[in-house]
Amino acid sequence: MKLKNVLIVVKDIERSRQFYHDLFGLELILDNDGNMILTEGLVLQEEKYWKEFLGKEIVPENNSSELYFEESDIEGFIKKLERYDPDVKYVNRLMTHSWGQKVIRFYDPDGNLIEVGTPV
């Protein structure tokens, strides 16, 4: 068995597709009307469908999971992020862990936690 995809819930699927394309270079593989598969195994699911499936409310910024990306030019990425979304909500700005890795954490437009770190 292998892990095939990771699904995140979004309010505006087109805005989220554009966000992940513009900042991370993810491309659309398949659009299933409310469910988009992007490269690198990321799936975007419209909130209204997810609520129907679960029968529960969605809790943005629940901090129970994160999407992790690596970027060797993290300072360049931060400049790109700030130009793209000057109002981005940070969990932590650029910091360096004790093992030397630089990381930044922030939320996507729907409150999904993202970490970008330098390769270890």
From TrEMBL:
Species per Swiss-Prot/TrEMBL record: Ruminococcus difficilis
Name this protein carries in UniProt: VOC family protein
InterPro entries per the UniProt record, alphabetical: Glyas_Bleomycin-R_OHBP_Dase, Glyoxalase-like_dom, VOC_core
Start and end residues of each VOC domain: 2-119
Top-level taxon in the UniProt lineage: Bacteria
